[in-house]
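Blinded run. Sample ID left blank on purpose so nobody reads anything into the name before looking at the predicted structure. Input follows.
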Amino acid sequence: AGHVYGQAMSFMDVFDSDQSAEVRKDNLFDPFADRYDWEIGQWLLGSGLSMATIPSLGTSQNILLGTNHLNTLSLSFQSAKQLRGLVEMLPPGPQWKCKCIETSHPTKSKVYLYYWDPVDSLEAVFSNSLFHGFDLILPVRCEIP
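Blinded prediction complete.
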């Protein structure tokens, strides 16, 4: 049959050993203050507004809510720059790669292939916190006669 050659640290092992691991025991949304804080940040980042459009939450409050409600919130960020800093503290996922493809027939423009590295992608899937504690796959070396 096969033989197990050891086990590397999973994404969650690395994630749980970083400097914020203790804080995350009480706050799953760290580096954000709480779920509401994270949801507002997620909405701002996904809203299509550029970072230049949101110089600070204090000055863009009328655009966002039409009132002064954002001043009464206790957010962990007060500007787009601080929000971006919090997001950059989060662990990254697989990075996009790009390769120019040579074609056997002429094309009007170059053909580019955008892809994720398969190993990085599998690592991201299998290290998802939803699967923490489950052995989804055990790599083994098999000899084929």
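Unblinding after everyone has recorded impressions. The longest strand covers residues 96-101.
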